């Protein structure tokens, strides 16, 4: 991109950012109270921090116990007996809830309506948009469709999850920060500053949502690869990896130590939910196979809010919904076809490496999601797509790359102009869907 365009880059995000704020506020006003995923329990977390100035505790702890009937294990929810405010969402790290708690107190002091606590989500979306723009600029600045990466935040899924009180919006923003620091490694050799900032970014992610643990091996692997490619000796590269790992622990270490003291494990869900069910038991749940396929193919790509059921949606918005429903299945297929011709477009080596990295991160997350559904928690599929919000940028990179490679120059130019409007229009079209779920 010409250097003369550099001063205009921030301005290019101005109108998309304003559009996101408007959409987020409309969604926040339209969605019924406590309708977001676990929103009532997340608000209890926020109130504990804001009103009682203390972290909540888990009321019960699922413990694996032998199941003579199946010969395997089952979970036994045992009361923890811990004093203080309690909520099942106390399993989550506190960073997102702490930000909401500060604004929650301000809402009461200013006399704003109770629903105004949701306005924090606008900050998550704006931060994600800015950080994804920085991530795209590191390796994809010369690719017209991949440069649209920050504008994918305008899709209904991110707007919806930023409009309710959960930690998914915060995971979107912090995940974008991690992706930026990771993609930077494909452009420059990591120095001490890059090493520490990458570690701190991942540490903030671990203090936001435990699902961002998936980024830890990728961060360390990318750091080692970048250092070795730059000519660092093996010992120097390993030292950088150790420093990065130490920086990861710095923000979240106290949280893990607290959990060990209270529950005997740093990661509550990882401890409470080992492999308990066989594949046959998981598939015996009604519609479980359908839900796995549906959630991965539909909510993974965030074309509309997670609460939408296909039959209800088709009845509510027949033609629009029917087109979107099939588009959701067509998008990953079209991207896959386009990726086969990626090499024919002669991209830079760093773009190819970044694409492979993103694809690997998404593949691992999909495997973990399917494992979680099949073996651990058959209820996760009800809102399963939102767990991918933590790696949202990595999800969208292969999709945009597929269209980048599969379209000719004229089609790319048209898509580059039209896609932002289509994404914002999709969010506007599904406001009533988000507000009135089945």
Plain-language structure description:
- It is globular, with a radius of gyration of 22 Å.
- The chain has helices at residues 9-12, 14-30, 39-51, 95-110, 120-139, 156-162, 168-184, 192-206, 215-229, 234-263, 268-272, 279-283, 288-297, 310-316, 318-340, 349-376, 392-406, 409-429, 431-435; strands at residues 60-67, 72-79.
- Helix 2 runs parallel beside helix 18 (409-429), helix 8 (192-206) runs antiparallel to helix 9 and helix 14 (310-316) crosses helix 15 (318-340).
- It has one domain (15-435).
- It has 19 helices and two strands.
- A two-stranded antiparallel ribbon has the order 1-2.
- The longest helix has 30 residues, at 234-263.
Compose a concise summary of this entry:
By secondary structure, the chain is mainly alpha-helical.
Order of helices and strands: HHHEEHHHHHHHHHHHHHHHH
Q: What's the total count of β strands?
A: 2
Number of structural domains: 1
* C-alpha end-to-end distance: 46 Å
Give me the side-by-side strand order of the main sheet: 1-2
Radius of gyration: 22 Å
Please mark out the parts with pLDDT under 50 across 5 or more consecutive residues, or reply none.
Answer: 1-8, 270-294, 296-325, 375-383, 434-438
The chain-level mean pLDDT equals: 76
Number of helices: 19
**Structural class by helix and strand composition:** mainly alpha
Q: Estimate what percentage of residues fall within beta strands.
A: under 5%
Shape: globular
Helix content: 55-70%
The major pleated sheet works out as: 2 strands, antiparallel
